[in-house]
Design a protein that fits this description.
Largest sheet: none
Oligomer: single chain
Helix content: 55-70%
CATH topology: Four Helix Bundle (Hemerythrin (Met), subunit A)
Strand content: under 5%
CATH architecture: Up-down Bundle
Length: 111
C-alpha cells in the first residue's frame, strides 16, 4: 500500500501525506548537508578536537544515509511502516524523526 493510499485509509491526523513526508525529509537532508561544513570549520579552529569531529561527521553521515533510505521507502510505498513489526509508525514519531525505520517499541527492543 502506498503512503497516499494509506493516508486515505486513515484520518489526516494519523498519517503524513507523501508530500509532507518528502518536505520533512528534504529539510532533514538540507540540515545535515549544512552541518558537515560547520563541523569541519569548527575543527579547523580547534585541531585538538579531531576525535570529536570524526564522531560528529560519522553521525551526520549515518543520518544522511537513513534519510536516503527513507526516501527509498517513500518511493516504494513502505514509508511510515515499522520494518520490524509491520505496523504504522505513529505520525508524532515521524514528525520528530522523519527517517524513523521502526516504531518506538521495536526500536527499544532493537537496542
Amino acid at each position: 500500500m502506498s503512503l497516499d493510499s494509506a493516508a486515505r485509509a486513515g484520518s489526516a491526523a494519523e498519517r503524513l501525506s507523501a508530500s509532507e513526508a518528502r518536505q520533512r525529509l528534504e529539510h532533514e537532508r538540507g540540515a545535515r548537508l549544512a552541518q558537515l561544513p560547520a563541523v569541519d570549520e569548527a575543527s579547523d579552529r580547534a585541531p585538538q578536537a579531531d576525535d570529536l569531529r570524526v564522531m560528529q561527521r560519522r553521525s551526520i553521515e549515518r543520518a544522511y544515509k537513513e534519510i536516503d533510505a527513507a526516501f527509498a521507502r517513500l518511493q516504494q510505498g513502505t514509508y511510515g511502516m515499522c520494518q520490524r513489526c509491520g505496523r504504522s509508525i505513529p505520525v508524532e514519531r515521524l514528525e520528530i524523526l522523519p527517517y524513523a525505520r521502526c516504531c518506538v517499541p521495536c526500536q527499544q527492543h532493537a537496542g
